[in-house]
Amino acid sequence: MTNRPSLDDIRRAPKVLLHDHLDGGLRPATIADLARETGYDGLPAADPDNLRTWFAEASDSGSLERYLETFEHTVGVMQTAEALTRVAYECAEDLASDGVVYAEVRYAPEQHTRNGLSLEQVVEAVLKGFADGGRDFGIRVGTLLTAMRHQARSMEIAELAVRYRDAGVVGFDIAGAEAGYPPTRHLDAFEYLQRENAHFTIHAGEAFGLPSIWQAIQWCGADRLGHGVRIIDDITDRDGERPQLGRLAAYVRDKRIPLEMCPSSNVQTGAAKSIAAHPIGPLRRLYFRVTVNTDNRLMSGTTLSEEFAKLVEAFDYGWDDLQWFTVNAMKSAFIGFDERLELINGVIKPGFAQLKWRSHA
Fold it and tell me: Does the annotation mark 120 as catalytic?
């Protein structure tokens, strides 16, 4: 393909991010600063450059469990209201500088109460950071409150999400190691959210296979799937002329259930062998509701623009493909229909049209 989108041009494109963890996107310099300020002494390195290298190497193991261990240090420095507000504010700045116009950023409030903060104080501190950052950098950020699937606080966190949904919390999520902790353990929380007309996504089909996806959708009623890469296991002859979809894959496609795919992270955790072999290729060809995301920008050493650039390189995507992913994400966001439509028609499509025109000029 000629006129391939370059990384610089992709950074200028108005992008939408649905799957990004607040504790997975800290700046190394901020981690070092907060460790000094809060007295956290467990860092593997004190210098920001060395910290960045350590996180990259520790995250690139091919194991989801090892990948999750790196969060002990980022969460460790996020135990005060001031730290949470700073991290959220800088997250908004970093995303805006990468051309993201709308983002949903998730975090687990229960992980930030070690020094005495209440769940409400945690949520309010993060909301303040995003509100200030959104105002200063021109980005809209909604938050998802995450419950850890190996704990027993999902109902408490679900109630918290509903309580703050008019203040910037747009949805709910469960995360953590999938094996041994099926989403049905938290069925009461999902049923409560459905009764409250609230939105939720579930990490499923990343480290575990089709049963995880099936439970998330058919038992729990997930609006979206966090990752969902293993849906590819229900498609045969997927690289041939006539791929055959199993019943679950056909249901996911027919119902337009969004897949929050994170290419670099999926490779790091072993959910995909490489970017070129990532299921996003065949799933895009089959018109699943695929979205592109970062997951953890620090651990994966990435940005949303870089994720798109890797897909351009691997699959020869052009501007139409990148716009398709972006519109998919905006359609799948947990904000109101009018707001989504305004961003699609007023920001995303005009922004991509200008970039496409420039590339052909």
Answer: no
